[in-house]
UniProtKB/TrEMBL annotation, chain A:
SMART domains: PH. This is Pleckstrin homology domain-containing family J member 1. Residues 25-99 form the PH domain. Gene3D superfamilies: Pleckstrin-homology domain (PH domain)/Phosphotyrosine-binding domain (PTB). Coiled coil: none annotated. GO terms for biological process: endosome organization; receptor recycling; retrograde transport, endosome to Golgi.
UniProtKB/TrEMBL annotation, chain B:
It is found in: Early endosome; Recycling endosome; Golgi apparatus, trans-Golgi network; Cytoplasmic vesicle, Clathrin-coated vesicle. The lineage of its organism: Eukaryota, Metazoa, Chordata, Craniata, Vertebrata. It comes from Camelus ferus (Wild bactrian camel). Residues 17-113 form the PH domain. This is Sesquipedalian. One of its GO terms (cellular component) is trans-Golgi network. Belongs to the sesquipedalian family. The gene is PHETA1.
Length: 140, 231
């Protein structure tokens, strides 16, 4: 599949939601939007990137976790952290990192605000008509 | 760079409705030729397929950091997805109608994760402000009967709902201002009163009742395990 690699590389240099050196092949791992980039230490360009949509984050041992994807649940990407705390922090961040999670959050908050105030909070952004933010999206 | 292409393809073709889809002409790199492709926008990814029935995308354009603009081109209804930086690629696309072009430009310019995150954070702030405004915080004089609280709730809320800038966060933490002077009791029992000639205090009172009712509904729904979503 072709993709705009230069832009993806540029994205890997953007401010990260989180970044750390996680063990097992000692990769520097950087979370930017819904991508998890992994670098060899001291290299500027990522070895690879994982798109974090439709994935499952599972705790593997006291301080490790794995990422697997819906279409191939057996294939796991393993990560080992320095501590249980770091592990929990990363697992939480990765679970919230998907576009789909953001979208569901938006729909939820919109609905809550609408119930509480009687007003649609998306109107001020001019996006209240967009199909992608309708409540039915939660049930899909 | 390695990419989890299977996951990408899965995301591209999953069952949930796309954020936008349709045929677009895509200018093939340096060559002038346009190729007609089936485009699917999902999240911050713009996939393109040989045709609408294909299960595997030919390619994907990751939309973070792009700008979308109209362009002068030989093709009608042309627009460009532009990226910053040296040797950055510009994708020139053309729709098949004015309406389709406008739809795509709008959808693509708001497709980034960054944009969505901004909106979500703003809504989180607003919700927090409304919740703390509505949850009778300690600063509000408890000695006053509920009617006064209705006015105070209303005065915290509009600032949260109408000020999308960071200022929206602060009203929730305003020290409770003196509630407006109470309207005489008789107006409380006339919700259908002459609102067109009502005083500001009367409107406060009337809407305050409505907000209180909504709030108690919400509090009840919060008490249930699945508090969110459509009842």
């Amino acid at each position: 599949m072709r993709y705009n690699e230069k832009e993806l590389q540029a994205l890997s240099r953007q401010p990260a939601e989180m970044a750390a050196e996680l063990v097992v092949k000692r990769r520097l791992v950087k979370l930017v939007v819904n991508f998890l980039f992994y670098f060899r230490t001291d290299e500027a360009e990522p070895v690879g990137a994982l798109l974090l949509e439709h994935c499952r984050i599972t705790q593997e041992e006291p301080s490790g976790f794995s990422i697997s994807f819906l279409e191939d649940p057996e294939r796991k990407y393993h990560f080992e952290c320095c501590s249980e705390e770091q592990c929990q922090e990363w697992m939480g961040a990765l679970r919230r990192a998907s576009y789909e999670f953001m979208r569901r959050s938006l729909i939820f908050y919109r609905n809550e605000l609408q119930k509480m105030t009687g007003k649609d909070p998306l109107e001020q952004f001019g996006i209240s008509g967009e199909a992608r933010f309708q409540l039915s999206g939660l049930k899909a | 760079m390695k990419l989890n292409e299977r996951s990408l393809a899965f995301y591209a073709t999953c069952d949930t409705p796309a954020d936008n889809e349709g045929f677009l002409y895509k200018k093939g790199g340096r060559h002038a030729a346009y190729h007609r492709r089936w485009f699917v926008l999902r999240g911050n990814m713009l996939f393109y397929f040989e045709d609408a029935a294909s299960r595997e995308p030919v390619g994907v354009i990751i939309l973070e950091g792009c700008t979308v603009e109209l362009v002068e081109a030989a093709e009608e209804f042309a627009f460009a997805v532009r990226f910053a930086g040296a040797r950055a690629r510009t994708y020139v696309l053309a729709a098949e109608s004015q309406a389709a072009m406008e739809g795509w430009v709008k959808a693509l310019s708001r497709a980034s994760f960054d944009y969505l995150r901004l909106v979500v954070r703003e809504l989180e702030r607003q919700l927090e402000a409304v919740r703390s405004g509505g949850a009778a915080p300690p600063r509000r004089p408890r000695a006053l009967p509920p009617k006064e609280n209705g006015c105070a709730v209303w005065s915290a809320e509009p600032a949260a709902a109408t000020a999308p800038a960071p200022a929206g966060a602060t009203p929730g933490s305003q020290p409770g201002p003196e509630p407006p002077p109470l309207p005489p009791r008789r107006r409380a029992s006339a919700p259908n009163g002459p609102l067109d000639s009502a005083s500001f205090a009367q409107l406060h009172e009337w809407y305050g009742q409505e907000v209180r009712a909504l709030r108690s509904q919400w509090l009840k729904s919060q008490a249930q395990p699945e508090g969110g979503g459509e009842a």
